[in-house]
Amino acid sequence: MKLYDYILSPSCYKVRLMAALTGVKLELRPVDFHPGAEHRGPELLALNPAGSIPILEDGDLLLTESSAILVYLAAQAAPEWLAGSKPEEAARVQQWLSFSGRLTASLGGARLHEMLLRPGDIGALQAQGIAALRELEAGLFEQAQRGKRFLAADRPTVADIACFPYVALAPDGGVSLDPYPTIRLWSRAVRALEGFIEMPGIHRLHELKPEPTVETGDA
Ligand SMILES: N[C@@H](CCC(=O)N[C@@H](CS)C(=O)NCC(=O)O)C(=O)O
Q1: Which domain holds residue 13?
Q2: β partners of residue 29
Q3: Cα of 146 to ligand 1 centre, how many Å?
Q4: Does residue 198 lie in a domain region?
Q5: Locate the GST N-terminal domain: which residues (predicted)?
Q6: What 3 state SS string does 151-168 have?
Q7: How far apart are CA 32 and CA 38, in angstroms?
Q8: 39 Cα to the center of ligand 1, angstroms
Q9: pLDDT tens sequence across 65-105
Q10: From the CB of 65, is ligand 1 less than 6 Å away?
Q11: Residue 12 Cα, ligand 1 centroid: separation in angstroms?
Q12: What does pTM read for this prediction?
């Protein structure tokens, strides 16, 4: 399988991470995203008219959209990363896959603005990012109250991988993760997964600081 990839792209990293966690071997085809904007050149636009990466080729199959690619890799190599047969779990996986697009637009947009000087209303992007992080914190907190450490189940699914990178890199866009203890716990759980790989700015769990405490209330 060939991945059109850029090392600093969180969306491409989702695919590299999923492949590493599920033992899928990828051939990486580096894209000159910056400064070359190769993803907007004729060769890549012919593959993905949306002008974005990642793009995955597997024989005759061409896939765009990171969430679809995650589902494809999991279905091929590790179906336990997909939703199981429980209707609520299936719905939650879809909910967070869809939600991950908001993280890309808000936190990802703020990061592009801060790192690559992309034009945009940084205040609005950060405010949308913070609103999304609050939702994520609430969702994970509810899961914690049910004794579950991940977004859709008590095991990681494609939904966690879809949401994780832009959250972990939020500080690159000037958005702090300090107010979100449940998100930080979840991030630790993801970074501690067997087979986890890093990207610049996201490190595997090796620090020994005490875990943040989360009050789960009496209810
Ligand atoms: N919905 C797409 C979005 C991916 C995305 O935003 N990729 C970025 C790189 S991290 C990109 O190619 N952006 C195009 C651009 O900013 O010009 C997906 O999930 O695959």
Answers
A1: 2-80
A2: 4
A3: 34
A4: no
A5: 1-81
A6: CCCCCCCHHHHHHHHHHH
A7: 5
A8: 9
A9: 999 999 999 999 999 999 999 999 999 999 999 999 999 99
A10: yes
A11: 8
A12: 0.94
